[in-house]
Amino acid sequence: MKAKxxxxxxxxxxxxxxxxxxxxxxxxxxxxxxxxVAAILRGKHKPTFAPNVDTGDFVVIVNAGxxxxxxxxxxxxxxxxxxxxxxxxxGITLRDQLRGRFPERVIETAVRGMLPKNSLGxxxxxxxxxxxxxxxPHVAQKPKKLEx
Length: 148
Fold this sequence. Notes:
By secondary structure, the protein is an alpha/beta fold. It has helices spanning 30-42, 73-76, 94-99, 104-112, 119-125, and strands spanning 20-24, 58-62, 78-82, 89-93, 128-130, 144-145.
């Protein structure tokens, strides 16, 4: 819906036109990549952005396991999770997480931390598609390549 002269435009969910973007994470710095992806998922790159409406686009990230970090984060950054039982805390370093079965969880965690902590942030996060290789099933959506 377009605003007429003198009227304020208010974004609505049904009026949002979503695009698909594809990003190659190979060689990208983790934090810079995550902040750019979070901004696209929120829709902050669009002139119709509203903080209370999901105006963002879909993002497909390939080569998620080949992201890089600066400094000594590979050995010093630890991801913790807890089983819910006493003494059930486990930790895994960033290096081991990237070598493991689910290297895309590193980018997932970084992007999720940059989105709103409410149900709107959860719906924004669902538009993120991560793959550790170069293959992805979203060819039919014709994603545009995004250079960072």
